[in-house]
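Inputs:
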Amino acid sequence: MTMASELSEVRSFLGDAPPFDRLSEDQQSRIARRIVVRYFRSGETILEAGSHNDQLFIIRSGAVELRLAGEDLTMRLGQGGCFAYPSLLRGGEVRNTTRALEDTLVYCLPATEFHRLREESESLREYFNESETERIRAAVRDLRQKRSSSLEHATIEQLIVHSDPVSCPPEMPVCDAAALMSERDVSTLAICDEGGLLGIFTDKDLRRRVVAARFPLDNPVREVMTASPQTLPRDASAAEAMALMAAGGFRHIPILGDGGELLAVLSATDILAFLGDSAIDTGMLVAKAAGPAPLVAASAQIPESFARMEAGGFHAEHIMRFTSALGEAVHRKAAQLAEAELGPPPVPYALLAFGSLARGEQLVGSDQDNGIVMDDRVDEEGRAYFAALGERISDLLDDSGFVYCKGGIMAKNPEQRLTASEWKDRYARWIADPDEDSILRATIYFDMRAVHGDVGLAGRLHEDVVALASQSPLFVSFLARDAQRSKIPLGIFRNLVLEKSEDGQKVFDAKAQAIMPAIDIARTLALSEGLSETGTLERLEALAASGHMSPGDAESLKDAFLLVNELRITHQAEQVRTDTAPDNLINPRKLSPLEREYLKDAFKVIGSGLDSLKRNLAGGIA
Amino acid sequence: MLEALRKWRFARRLKECGRSDHASLRAYAEAEWPAASAPISHVPLLALDFELDGLGKDAHVLQAGWLPFNLSGIDLSQASSRDIRSKARLDDDAVAVHGIGETRAREGEHRHKVTDELLAALAGKVVVAHGASIERGVVERLVAQRFGIAPPVRAICTLELERKLSPGLVGTEAYRLEASRARYNLSPHSQHDALADALASAELFLAQLTRMGREMSLGSLEC
């Protein structure tokens, strides 16, 4: 009788806040009564790293930030956000220092209740997950979020393309408003009166609220505008704008000046343009290069585009893809320029890329790995043409920053310029008669793609090679065995086992010790199953899709691969910015404690991938 | 000076309760009461709110909500909400505001029973309320109707504190509970429910104290 009004508000808040919204009303009522309410002033520390905690924190109003060991920003949370549960999962030890970013009211739930809920509810258990796979997935997300935070340096003002926003009074008929938008070529109209901004009206509103709803065209636009839209001040950061768009699901934000006057309407496109410009510009420059000098100049911008994408918060797979696309464009242009100098090729041919470029996983500072496949009809004179062509392409690439390959895998070397049949024989020898030494040098050839010329020529070769490889268990077992050469730098006590670099720093080689083994695992399994994908992520996806790898394992490997690449990209972008030659030697001490934890998880995933490869495919010879 | 006077007056009235024939009044008097010099962080507090059927002195109490708390937090497991039985005809205007109609008011508990519970909850604690003089007056009236003696009620008024913390705001609206809470980034709450209002003023008090310090003496905050 008296319970009706009791704490109904607390309960209805829980009813809207994930994951508590998935609980029954009884459970919600029960936990409402177990809550202790606390208030923290902006700037106040809520939890200190190193202390002991026995409560789950739920933000009722305000915002907090979590910093690992008090330093690296792990997360920012607002209303409805939960924090401190990882400490409950590991018995109370607090690793993040949590500080109130605003005046914040929190609901604290005792650990006992938290554990009881995890027992009772599967969805809560999933939400508050402690498993490695989940953690590493969250880690990739976190790193991304963290990288996006460099967006905070860009203010909205830098992003605004169209200042002088187009506006109209609220009483303007819809048809006139639409005409105005059309005439001024804008997708968003600001509705203002003397008092300032009243609302906005977009293309989408026109579609949904006017045309689809058969709204009378003579009625005032006021009736179909989005009233009192969310706005941002001119000095807000791009990240804030993106967050607001993401959170609110809108694509336009009015930007107000210091006096509250409308300055511009920021669109999602403006943000994308800012982030992507550099990479796209560089690609345009490469494509337009009319001679060697412009090509060299355009290629020189690739590292900077790479660093800018990193700073822009792009994800690893996108940065690798963009950078590879730029590399591919440079290769293509080098071949086109060489053809222009030497005349058209006597027979069809293709320029082949091997290794990271073929996989679409290139970062900066890669040397060139390529070759030429010629039509079988080529004669001696034709071979002389391709010798000159190969030489020219390699030289142009070297000038453009893709330096000569130390192992000689480049078109200027005769053994890299073969006819389709000669290539096929070469692959067949590797596959039929493998030995440790030849495999070591041959794996790179099994990641192959045409970047210029007769794509069909290369494609047929690739198909034949894959078919041949999948029919040779001996070859696959050599590949599986070769993969075991990588030393995963993780000790049995989950400590990082590191080697000393030349200058005595303890480092690990992110490429050799994590990325290569992941690539090896994917390649070996894909070839053994006759899958023709070349990229590591694509191979893992194809393996999962065809039932040759459990989806969970494939996901974990993909995440581990992406995670280490995120770290590599950050490392190399920093080197680009400080004019250092990019390498893959990462000093774990320069990583945050959180990143080190992530890394250990990634090593563990890759290590178990290698183990399973050994068990299943190395077949007694490992 | 004023503090000392207040202390003397409280002690004197408490003594009177201690001589009462009623055990609950004697228990109230014998409770451990915090010294005025105690830092507020050590003081047991009780957020309290009543819903009345009017603004007059003899308005009926329709609902009482209270919850004990201290500076380390508001423990919702201790929250209490009681509808109070009333046979009187309800003031139509007030019904419109708080939604407690005659039917529900008749189904509530007897006010003496609620008074006993409240008195036990109050022993040794300092009331926190927005406009605490109303809550203090109602407690005194309820207990006097029950036992013939009005006990002394110690209280902190968040409204009064807000006038000091945010001086010079125009009009009384700016000092109402909801407007005051907004200044501390506290979300809107459902008004005209006694427990919700009590919780709202407890939260406001915690917020206000972050502007004043946890070591403020009880005496400097009491009204």
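Residues 100 and 483 of chain A are 48 Å apart (CA to CA). Flag for discussion at group meeting.
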